[in-house]
């Protein structure tokens, strides 16, 4: 058989074929049928051509992609994959052939709206999508923030503003060994936290052939099941390790005469650590912009890496670095150096039968760096870091380093750390765990501590018990602000403010959508953030450097204060800021104009879409908050809307795979109007899961290349 498509009641594809390559072709085809518009948006984003149909708003991303040479890096990684792993290369090639076949049959209304026709995928396109999806995932722009902060407030401020984890990443995952379950077999559960997109960033899918039969969450546009999978005898899941593996180098560049063929007078040289000037690669590219004029982008690459900020004349608008020579910044990251994205791990993961197989596959993992949990039906468990982190100076890890000074080179790779279980449990929630030696900032411990405490509250667990942990809304980080409220002198407060304070001190600290107290707490928290951000002590940091727009979210003062609020309120001293006065003013402000409703009235889902829907959706109000296990992240001081949250939830049961469960924020189909476009959203919001169907007789066989909305 060339590849059969079956679907369960939720429209989730179950694919069956005679070989891994035929299955990859079927996966590419069904993904294109279900997610044609999403795939083409991602392909263009990986190439830096999305502004050609999305318009000027997409230009900053396209400029970054061109300057960072992401498409060229993907091609380089593809060439290395062909050379070193021809089997995987053939498998990826089969997937892209399936995508091209599916795109030819797919219908998506967005194409007509934009005038875009589906293009042709190259074998390297999935590698480009993987790279573009994860290039900002490790948060290297945080180094720009630390540099900016240290320049205006001193090096000590860097620690004060550390959230112990940037507000852009996070996930939960936990493993309960068989000794702690009712079946005697392990359970793995969790939820990856990402920016919520419509269509979703994860695709529920089943891939079956004589070699393997795997259910899991795939990344649309990438073959296999990389992050979350269950083969029947072994299951695995990951979270972001919060490792630091990308460096930013200050570069000194100069233009010279005789740029070579086709570019006279445009050659560029970079000052190296040996004190000599070395030629840098240079060319220009043109970005087409729908509704605007084409934009020319100068692409420069030094021996460190592509220049993503500035150039020989300084920053993008010609502004030199404060107190120094013109600034250019080069990005160095492992795939650009090694030509390896870790795709060699994907087929071994599908073929895994035991924890040892997953472990060996993880040795081939490269990007991004993850913490991995796995368990098998023989009682084996695994808790380790997977990915490539360079060995280099401590300065590289924290801030920008000068390319012209020695001592900042890469010197090999760290051995990925490993950890065990504690009382039959392992928890990964981006905290300082096994990956601690590899990172700088991690997530606050609240989610990990809460999951561990909940699991400790019962001796035996089942797969059916896990949604109660997924949806826990206790906000431990509220303590810092509540302690400040408790310490206020009540005689200095107005009557309404004193009543509001007393009400918040009685609050159960749960960020439930139907809680008016949670809404009041969030309002006070946001007001405190704004009062602190307005203090003259932070005035200089409120104006970001003239860096490209794509880096601005990491440099915005209000979100930085919002995510670091717990530290800023508990530090011994804060640059002379009268924090009790700020808390008092915020309390009075909210007491005078209290929220009219509940937390869910303002804390609503705000997904990213490449195009606005033709019929606006009423997005749901949400429970949860940034430091809750139910991590639905607002930006305190800026908005209660949640653009980030659980991009999927899963429960892998090693006793019976059919007792496993999963859910995504919207549905299996990316086609507006399809019955499976948004049919899982009510369940996702409520914390419910849909069953993983494994019986082929319970599935509907789909004939032909029929689009999912027909």
Can you tell me about this structure?
This protein is of the alpha+beta class and 710 residues long. It is built from 23 helices and 25 strands. A 9-stranded mixed beta sheet has the order 17-16-8-7-6-5-2-1-25, with helices on one face. Residues 259-264 and 705-710 have low confidence and may be disordered. Helix 17 packs across helix 21. It starts with a strand and ends in an 8-residue tail after the last strand. Keywords: Hydrolase, Zymogen. Belongs to the peptidase S45 family. It comes from Streptomyces viridosporus T7A.
Q: Based on DSSP secondary structure assignment, what is the total number of beta strands?
A: 25
**Shape from CA axes?**
globular
What structural category do the secondary elements indicate? alpha+beta
Q: Could you estimate the helical fraction of the residues in percent?
A: 25-40%
Cα-based radius of gyration, to the nearest Å? 25 Å
Protein name: Penicillin acylase family protein
Family: Belongs to the peptidase S45 family.
Pfam family, one: Penicil_amidase
Keywords: Hydrolase, Zymogen
């Amino acid at each position: 058989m060339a590849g059969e498509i079956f679907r369960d009641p939720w429209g989730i594809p179950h694919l069956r074929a005679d070989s891994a390559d035929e299955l990859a072709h079927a996966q590419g085809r069904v993904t294109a049928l279900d997610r044609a518009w999403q795939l083409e948006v991602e392909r263009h984003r990986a190439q830096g051509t999305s502004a050609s149909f999305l318009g000027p708003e997409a230009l900053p991303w396209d400029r970054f992609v061109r300057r960072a040479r992401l498409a060229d890096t993907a091609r380089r990684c593809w060439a290395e994959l062909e050379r070193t792993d021809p089997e995987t290369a053939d498998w990826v090639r089969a997937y892209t052939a399936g995508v091209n076949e599916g795109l030819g049959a797919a219908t998506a209304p967005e194409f007509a709206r934009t005038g875009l026709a589906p293009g042709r995928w190259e074998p390297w396109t999935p590698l480009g999508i993987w790279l573009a999806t994860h290039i900002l995932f490790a948060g290297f722009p945080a180094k720009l923030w630390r540099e900016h902060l240290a320049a205006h407030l001193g090096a000590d401020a860097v620690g004060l503003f550390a959230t112990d984890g940037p507000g852009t990443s996070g996930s939960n995952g936990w493993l309960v060994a068989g000794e702690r379950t009712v079946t005697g077999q392990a359970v793995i559960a969790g939820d990856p936290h990402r920016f919520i997109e419509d269509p979703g960033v994860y695709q529920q899918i089943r891939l079956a052939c004589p070699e393997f039969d795997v259910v899991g969450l795939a990344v649309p546009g990438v073959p296999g099941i990389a992050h979350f999978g269950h083969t029947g005898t072994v299951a695995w899941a990951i979270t972001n390790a919060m490792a630091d593996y990308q460096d930013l180098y200050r570069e000194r560049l100069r233009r010279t005469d005789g740029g070579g063929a086709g570019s006279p007078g445009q050659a560029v040289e970079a000052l190296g650590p040996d004190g000599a000037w070395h030629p840098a690669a240079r060319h220009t590219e043109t970005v087409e912009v729908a509704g605007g004029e084409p934009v020319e982008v100068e692409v420069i690459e030094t021996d460190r890496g592509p220049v993503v900020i500035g150039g020989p004349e300084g920053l993008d608008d010609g502004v030199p670095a404060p107190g120094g020579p013109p600034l250019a910044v080069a990005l160095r990251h492992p795939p650009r150096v090694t030509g390896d994205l870790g795709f060699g791990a994907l087929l071994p993961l599908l073929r895994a039968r035991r924890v040892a197989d997953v472990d060996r596959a993880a040795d081939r993992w490269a990007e991004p760096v993850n913490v991995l949990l796995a368990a098998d039906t023989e009682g084996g468990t695994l808790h380790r870091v997977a990915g490539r982190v360079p060995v280099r100076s401590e300065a590289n890890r924290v801030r920008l380093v000068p390319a012209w000074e020695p001592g900042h080179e890469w010197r090999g790779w760290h051995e990925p750390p490993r950890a065990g279980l504690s009382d039959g449990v392992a928890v990964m929630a981006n905290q300082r765990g096994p990956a601690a030696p590899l990172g700088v900032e991690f997530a606050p411990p609240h989610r990990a501590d809460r999951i561990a405490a909940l699991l400790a509250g019962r001796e035996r667990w089942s797969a059916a018990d896990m949604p109660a942990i997924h949806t826990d809304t206790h906000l431990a980080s509220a303590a810092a602000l509540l302690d400040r409220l408790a310490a206020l002198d009540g005689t200095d407060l107005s009557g309404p403010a004193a009543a509001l304070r007393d009400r918040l001190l009685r609050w159960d600290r749960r960020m439930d959508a139907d809680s008016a107290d949670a809404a009041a707490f969030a309002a006070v928290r946001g007001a405190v953030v704004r009062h602190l951000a307005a203090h003259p002590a932070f005035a200089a940091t409120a104006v970001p450097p003239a860096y490209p727009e794509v880096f601005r979210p990491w440099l915005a003062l209000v979100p930085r204060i919002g995510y670091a609020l717990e530290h800023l309120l508990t530090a011994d001293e804060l640059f002379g800021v009268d924090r009790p006065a700020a808390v008092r003013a915020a309390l009075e402000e909210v007491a005078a104009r209290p929220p009219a409703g509940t937390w869910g009235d303002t804390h609503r889902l705000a997904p990213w879409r490449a195009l606005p829907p033709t019929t606006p959706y009423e997005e749901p109000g949400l429970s949860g908050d940034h430091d809750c296990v139910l991590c639905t992240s607002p930006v305190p001081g800026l908005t209660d809307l949640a653009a980030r949250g659980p991009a999927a939830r899963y429960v892998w049961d090693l006793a019976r795979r059919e007792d496993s469960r999963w859910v995504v924020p919207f549905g299996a189909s990316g086609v507006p109007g399809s019955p499976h476009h948004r049919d899982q959203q009510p369940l996702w919001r409520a914390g419910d899961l849909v069953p993983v169907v494994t019986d082929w007789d319970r599935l509907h066989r789909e004939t032909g290349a029929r689009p999912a909305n027909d």
